[in-house]
């Protein structure tokens, strides 16, 4: 996971990019209502308790997510559909409660529609939130307003969650890290996958595994394989070798489609698909493998696969394209920040 991890971390920790989001100049606050869910705990990869999380979703898809740590550090996630944020970039914004003086914050875009604001551990701000009716985020010329739900029950739920899970350890979380690392899950979430189910491969010898890690999303099986590219081998050479291996596994008709190269920040990426149609359609399914290949400037070679049967072909191709878009955006952001 080193190549993938370095790309993700470099983009998310790069110097600020001072850009404005493409949100409307003004937006009326949404209806005020009570939170409909309770806070739930989130555990670290090693199983240790990390923080508590609670979200409030509005009818138009906007969402506010509050996360609080045992040290009372408070983070706020603001989701604005079609916000057109640049993944990994940072935005200088102002957060305003009612008509009070706004507080400046440097928010980070964790995907193209969500900003993360780190609000610190001050006890004053939660109290101010609890007594406010409207929260607005934006610049001097562009702002989006949210009608706040009843905030006291929300913070009470967070505190209850923190007390109940203090010092706890979740062994399942530690086991799931072996099935799907947090860094990979973060990338999948950034790409827009929300229903990831890790698949374990303890009983499969490493040399026989179809990928380093596999997961299920919808009706599609996803996977990733990362290797150091052999010296002198181009991306086209590596794709050819990979496709040859897939062809050997197909006992029916094998068809391949490989798209043109796309480049961003020194990264070279190509989308492809491989379809294996059985000789007898009555007995077996047609399998589509949607593939994403990319080569980093340091020679890291990565293959993302999304495999579906019969009617899941469209879903597999869409999953590939979502991942490709996220990888290119991260690579572009890293390149721009490094100038």
Structure description:
By secondary structure, this protein is α+β, with helices and mostly antiparallel strands. Helix content is 27%, strand content 34%. It contains 7 helices and 17 strands. It has helices at residues 2-12, 124-130, 151-165, 171-179, 182-190, 235-249, 313-337, and strands at 40-43, 49-57, 63-68, 74-79, 90-97, 103-111, 114-120, 134-138, 143-147, 197-199, 213-217, 220-228, 253-258, 262-264, 267-277, 287-295, 300-309. Strands 1-2-3-4-7-6-5-8-9 form a 9-stranded antiparallel β-sheet. Strands 10, 11, 12, 13, 14, 15, 16 and 17 form an 8-stranded antiparallel β-sheet that branches. Helix 1 crosses helix 7. Mean pLDDT is 80; it is low at 1-36.
Structural key phrases:
17 strands, disordered N terminus, alpha+beta, single chain, 27% helix, 34% strand, 339 residues, 7 helices, eight-stranded antiparallel β-sheet, nine-stranded antiparallel β-sheet
Short structural description:
This protein has 339 residues and is α+β, with helices and mostly antiparallel strands. It contains seven helices and 17 strands. 28% of the residues are buried.
DSSP strand count: 17
Average of the residue pLDDT scores: 80
- The level of helicity is 25-40%
Distance between the termini: 26 Å
Could you tell me the radius of gyration in angstroms?
22 Å
In DSSP terms (H or I, runs of 4 or more residues), the helix count works out at 7
Order of helices and strands: HEEEEEEEHEEHHHEEEHEEEEEH
């Amino acid at each position: 996971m080193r190549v993938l991890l370095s790309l993700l971390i470099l983009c998310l920790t790069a110097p600020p990019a001072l850009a404005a989001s493409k949100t409307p100049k003004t937006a009326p606050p949404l209806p005020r209502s009570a939170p409909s869910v309770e806070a739930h705990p989130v555990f670290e990869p090693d199983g240790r308790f990390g923080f508590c999380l609670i979200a409030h979703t509005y009818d138009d898809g906007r969402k506010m997510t509050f996360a609080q740590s045992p040290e009372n550090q408070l983070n706020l996630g603001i989701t604005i559909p079609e916000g057109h944020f640049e993944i990994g970039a940072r935005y200088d914004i102002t957060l305003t409660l009612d008509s009070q003086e706004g507080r400046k914050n440097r928010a980070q875009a964790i995907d193209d529609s969500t900003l993360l604001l780190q609000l610190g551990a001050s006890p004053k701000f939660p109290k101010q939130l609890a007594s406010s009716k409207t929260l607005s985020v934006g610049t001097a010329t562009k702002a989006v307003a949210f009608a706040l739900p009843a905030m006291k029950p929300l913070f009470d739920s967070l505190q209850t969650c923190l007390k109940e899970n203090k010092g706890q350890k979740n062994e399942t979380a530690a086991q799931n890290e072996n099935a799907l690392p947090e860094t990979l899950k973060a990338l999948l979430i950034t790409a827009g996958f929300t229903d990831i189910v890790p698949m374990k491969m303890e009983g499969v010898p490493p040399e026989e595994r179809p990928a380093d890690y596999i997961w299920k999303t919808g009706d599609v099986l996803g996977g990733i394989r990362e290797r150091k590219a052999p010296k002198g081998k181009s991306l086209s050479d590596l794709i050819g070798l990979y496709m040859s291996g897939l062809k050997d596994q197909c006992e029916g008709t094998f068809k391949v489609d490989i798209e043109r190269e796309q480049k961003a920040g020194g990264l070279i990426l190509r989308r492809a698909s491989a379809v294996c149609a059985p000789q007898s359609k009555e007995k077996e399914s047609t399998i589509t493998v949607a593939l994403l290949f990319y080569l980093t400037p340091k020679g890291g070679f990565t293959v993302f696969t999304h495999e579906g049967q019969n009617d899941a072909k469209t879903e597999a191709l869409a999953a590939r394209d979502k991942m490709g878009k996220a990888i290119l955006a991260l690579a572009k952001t890293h390149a721009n920040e490094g100038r």
